[in-house]
Write a structure and sequence with these properties.
The protein has 15 helices and 25 strands. By secondary structure, it is of the alpha/beta class.
Length: 503
């Protein structure tokens, strides 16, 4: 089945599908909006397998554009709304979109990056009243046909672009619905951008069951809590930085929020101390700790809420339909307690990277996804991520997990976020540099934090330097970016060697 048909198969025309600001939209209005965008795409000559870029904030227009592209058998290419004109030109040179759907707000800034394309713009497109859902082409597709292309890296000579097929999208959506037990009564606060696989998975799962999305920005977190109360929202989905801010810098833990019943956490490890705080803040809701990758469409594993205490720190086991294992260098399953690489097989696993057979062979050998994450398993087969291979720090001959350091320092409730990296050091091998942001009104000093770490961590894992920042650098999806922190640390190191100051 075409994924647009699959996602809109169940919701009745009159049922609420979307709340966006002061506007609400039914499934019938969603279908009409999809038809309007599809008509514009057809007028531009878009055909099956053509690539169409989407640029804009989460909105009715974004949803309609995405579903219209899929309905026509074309390939959706979601791009971050924060993309620069130069980055857009570079990505377009690689991916060659035939057309673009661009929000009217983003268009003036990106005009020079659209390479002469006349994009479909939001208001003018959605105002077409003559197009109907029933009048659209059937949109029949092969299940193995590409549906979405997602960039996972920037403007390198060979950027990584993940291919996701209609089979991938539907298999992962069915699995997530299964373990979350979603139905038409579920509504979710959509904070994460739809251009991020986690954010788009909320669109997939809730539309498939006839549920609803509530669009929100995380610019004013306290207002988000007001919106949860006003809409009787039943679910939140977020990456660690979202929950850290809610728990440490808002009144989240002091509000009743009785409508909440499902909280999804993925996109990186939320330290055990904060998971405990999250459970305590909403004891009436189920907290689902999950793990995934873009190359796996979205999700790979989950930990059942009733096992959060018994399997503290675990990402759980493979979701329905996914074979998730931890293997050693010989490709054999590791024994309990040993560390190996997480690998996955299932219908949600991408067929590979666009036009990159070498990287595809390395990452997807024989249809098995090599995640690059190191983990151990316990006697019951539950998986515990140790760290990303690239994020380990070699200190005094020890391999130190950056996540272990971050989890320790986040036991302090005056710290909102933390990121540990390693920099070259003649004595240590690598010195640990820790970057933190503090909660409103906190007065901790770098030395306070180092002394705290000395009481919590072995000597080889204690940071040499701590720097307090107003906010850690975040990606559009809210993940902490360690690349800019490494650049900052290395710049400071170079400046110290040359005797100059870094400001």
């Amino acid at each position: 089945m075409n994924t647009a048909d699959y996602l809109l198969e169940i919701g009745p025309d009159q049922q609420l599908a979307l709340i966006s600001g002061q506007s609400s939209h039914s499934y019938g209005e969603i279908r009409s909006a999809v038809a309007a965008v599809a008509k514009s795409l057809l007028e531009q000559g878009v055909e099956s397998s053509d690539r169409v870029g989407i640029i804009g904030a989460n909105s009715l227009f974004w949803i309609a554009s995405y579903l219209a592209i899929l309905k026509l058998g074309a390939v959706a290419v979601p791009l971050p709304v924060t993309i620069s004109p130069g980055e857009l030109r570079a990505r377009q040179a690689f991916i060659q979109c035939k057309s673009f759907c661009v929000s009217r707000q983003a268009f003036p800034r990106l005009r020079d990056g659209l390479s002469g394309h006349e994009p479909i713009l939001s208001e003018s497109c959605l105002n077409q009243g003559s197009a109907t859902w029933s009048g659209l082409p059937s949109g029949d597709v092969d299940s193995g046909q590409d549906a979405v292309l997602l960039f996972t890296s920037g403007t390198t000579a060979r950027p990584k672009v993940v291919r996701l097929t209609h089979r991938n999208l539907q298999a992962n959506t069915d699995s997530i619905i299964d373990y979350l037990s979603l139905d038409e009564t579920d509504s979710v606060m959509s904070i994460l951008p739809f251009s991020y696989c986690f954010g788009c998975s909320l669109l997939h799962t809730h539309f498939r069951v006839g549920g609803s999305l509530i669009l929100a920005r995380f610019l004013y977190p306290e207002s988000l809590l007001d919106l949860i109360e006003a809409t009787s929202c039943t679910g939140i989905a977020g990456v660690p930085s979202i929950y850290q801010t809610l728990l440490r810098n808002t009144t989240f833990s002091m509000r009743a929020l009785p409508s909440l019943r499902k909280l999804q956490q993925a996109g990186g490890k939320l330290p055990d101390a904060l998971i405990a705080e999250l459970v305590a803040a909403v004891p009436h809701a189920d907290v689902f700790v999950m793990y995934g990758q873009t190359e796996a469409t979205a999700r790979l594993s989950y930990l059942p809420p009733d096992m959060l205490r018994a399997k503290r720190g675990s990402i759980g086991r493979g979701i329905p339909g996914v074979d998730l294992r931890v293997i050693d260098e010989q490709g054999q399953p590791v024994a309990p307690g040993q560390v190996g690489e997480v690998v996955a097989r299932g219908e949600n696993i991408s067929p590979g990277y666009l036009d990159d057979p070498d990287e595809t062979r390395l990452k997807f050998a024989d249809g098995v996804l090599r995640t690059g994450d190191l983990a151990r398993v316990d006697e019951d087969g539950f998986i515990y991520i140790v760290d990303r291979h690239a994020d380990f720090i070699k200190s005094y001959g020890h391999r130190v997990s950056s996540q272990e350091i971050e989890a320790a320092v986040l036991e302090r409730k005056d710290i909102v976020a933390a990121a540990a990296i390693g920099v070259p050091d003649t004595v240590r091998g690598e010195a640990i540099c820790l970057y933190v942001s503090l909660s409103n009104g906190a007065t901790a000093t770098p030395d306070d934090i180092i002394q705290f770490c000395k009481r919590r961590l072995p000597a080889h894992a204690v940071p040499r330097d701590v720097e307090i920042l107003k906010q850690l650098p975040l990606s559009e999806s809210g993940k902490v970016l360690k690349g800019p922190l490494r650049e900052r640390a290395h710049e400071k190191l170079r400046a110290s060697h040359s005797g100059s100051e870094v400001t």
